[in-house]
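Regression report. Comparing outputs from two consecutive submissions.

Submission 1:
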Amino acid sequence: MRIISGTKRGMAILPPKGDRTRPITDRVKESIFDVLYKYNLIEDRLVADVFCGTGSFGLEALSRGAKQVVFVDSDRNAIEILRKNIAKADFMAESRVVCANAFKIGAPPAANGEKCSLVFIDPPYEMSRETEGKSRLAGLLELLPEQITKDGLVVVRTEKKVNLLDSYGDLKIIDKRIWSSMAVSFLALKDDKQTSGNTDNSQSSQVGI
């Protein structure tokens, strides 16, 4: 794994130990950030990497100009490697690491109350197979509208066979992509909850690599 673009382009990311986490390939990560480019939600903004593992999404966002990233995970072994990756990239000042149950705390705002404009949700696959109203994932997605900006976006990675509901509380799916064996869904606040013109509300067709 490596950082694809930005100030730390090409930097290798230390991988996780064991098989609990499932690191994303460089090619798919680059494709996801290509989709995100049109939303302008990274540069000088607050980003959350939830179920961050060793920090691939968050480090990529920092390299591309994010003001700060809050990394959330409950796996202490992954957090240990994450801190090494943050130090290696010299992003200590721009990073906040929270070791906690992500299903319960979601994407915590900055100390000054600033909300996240972009939230990556990337739980282990066994934690994201249940998506109905009473599932843990549904509870997390229903929590996030209070934690993101009006133009904010939530990016959820699951197995391809997993189908998210069209909406969770004030969040709705506006785009979905298929890459290899995984699906990536992009969710935004519903029209009456967001500032008009900040997101593209048409759901795209699924594409693959």
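Submission 2:
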Amino acid sequence: MPELDIKKIMEFLPHRYPFLLVDRVTDTDQSEYLSAYKNVSVNEPFFQGHFPGQPIMPGVLILEALAQATGLLAFSSMNEDYSTKLYMLVGIDKSRFRGQVVPGDQLKLNVRLKRNMRGIGIYECRALVGETLVAEAEMMCSAQDRSA
């Protein structure tokens, strides 16, 4: 599965506007890595308050975009019906912010499965604008059954 458009992304993820933070998956091998992006627009609701006159994408939302990308990687490699599962963020380690993301940027999201331990995936995550690293983290995520 080399590419996913927004319709397919919305089949995998339960997030919706304004909290769906992945616009397109550009590359994945379905079990090891995924590359995606988020187009950052001045119309994003968080820019109204972060910060007036100097809009900067909040770091926690960059991490959320990376977490959503890990969910897409996990769902794309599931052998079972992904519609019955939620992929939950259960931990973040080694997070660092190295640059700012502003309106007009295209945030590239790269996630790589580091290992899977007892149902918890551990992912190396990097967010870039162009070739510039703006954030990185190690994330732990786990599939859970959706409540009816």
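Expected: both submissions complete independently.
Actual: both completed, but the second showed a warning that disappeared on reload.
Relevant detail on submission 2: Residues 80 and 143 are 11 Å apart (CA to CA).
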